[in-house]
Design a protein that fits this description.
By secondary structure, the protein is α+β, with helices and mostly antiparallel strands. The protein has one domain (about 20-300): Lambda Exonuclease, Chain A (Alpha-Beta Complex). Helix content is about 45%, strand content about 15%. The protein contains ten helices and five strands, in the order αααααααβββαββαα. It has helices spanning about 10, 30-35, 40-45, 55-70, 80-95, 100, 110-130, 180-200, 225-250, 280-285; strands at about 140-145, 150-160, 170-175, 210-215, 220-225. α8 links the parallel β3 and β4.
Length: about 300
């Protein structure tokens, strides 16, 4: 599970509506939720159970905000010292707009450790690239595209770089750990999702998909997709949407236990752990989700 981005598009533009409203589009995080566990998807999208921020998600939010605003500065001023000096003001700005963030730390020592961890993530970023040599075409870019079936895909791209030759690089920052090999495909799924949307929007397949892991010494994962990759991703998303539609029609949002359950914030409501899910919202019982209208295929990431 992508811990730092687990609730990103629920709170930043996905607009799924009130509890029980059928989802009108699919984002990378919510697609990942359903593949991880259909019940998790239900809790987040159908029930819309609130999920307060955690130190991990807050660190991701803060570091992303600093890296976005760093590129507002002239190139020569995009230094480690400048980024470090932005952390405290950015955290204050974020807390002013989100009471959940403002109330996250009860002890000053916890807050100091949080800021230190954010500093470490920024230091990891500067070990990976020099922002003085970059001029991004887009930052925190909201993208949305409709597939021929009518399924809408949407999300936020951390950064888009475009070379003078027109080649596109899609960049995503991660403040969590580099995934184990078994989970690397899941991490790339998000990037292929964005590549598909950009292909549909601009008619150009991105040359490079780049995941930047900022923790520790930092690491960069790169992948170059081709048309076959993106068509396969499209088929997978269509099948996923068909499965989501069937779950809405039947009310069958069964849990899918895995090691990722250790990080789930809804274990108390999960039947696998002795819990009872809340009743489905009335609107969810009366309004089927729009279906993409194709047969389902394998959905494993």
């Amino acid at each position: 599970m992508d811990i730092e981005n687990a609730v990103d598009d629920l709170d930043a533009g996905a607009s799924f509506g009130v509890a029980g409203d059928p989802p009108s589009a699919l984002s990378p995080s919510r697609a990942s939720d359903f593949m991880t566990c259909p019940l998790l998807y239900r809790f987040r999208v159908i029930d819309r159970i609130p999920e307060p921020p955690t130190p991990a998600t807050a660190r991701g939010t803060l570091v992303h905000a600093v890296l976005e605003r760093l590129f507002d500065r002239p190139a020569a001023e995009r230094t480690p010292a400048a980024a470090a000096g932005m952390l405290e003001p950015e955290w204050t700005r974020l807390c002013d707009g989100d009471a959940g963030l403002a109330e996250l730390f009860g002890e000053e020592a916890e807050r100091e450790q949080f800021i230190a961890d954010a500093h470490a993530a920024l230091a990891g970023y500067f070990r990976l690239e020099d922002p003085r040599r970059l001029e991004p075409a887009e930052r925190e870019w909201y993208v949305e595209a409709e597939l021929p079936s009518g399924l809408r895909l949407r999300g936020y791209v951390d950064r888009l770089d475009v070379s003078t030759a027109g080649d596109i690089r899609v960049v995503d920052y991660k403040t969590g750990k580099v995934p184990l090999a078994a989970y690397e495909a899941s991490a790339l799924f998000q990037m292929k999702f964005y590549a598909l949307v950009i292909w549909r929007l601009r008619g150009v397949i991105p040359r490079v998909l780049q995941l930047m892991y900022l923790s520790g010494d930092g690491e960069v994962l790169r992948y170059s997709p081709d048309e076959a990759d993106l068509r396969a991703t499209e088929r997978k998303l269509e099948a996923l949407w068909a499965a989501i539609s069937r779950a809405r029609e039947t009310g069958d949002w069964r849990p899918r236990p895995s090691r990722l359950c250790d990080w789930c914030r809804h274990k108390a409501l999960c039947p696998e752990f002795g819990g009872t899910p809340p009743p489905l919202p009335e609107r969810a019982l009366s309004r089927p989700a729009p279906a993409a209208g194709i047969a389902a295929t394998a959905l494993e990431p």
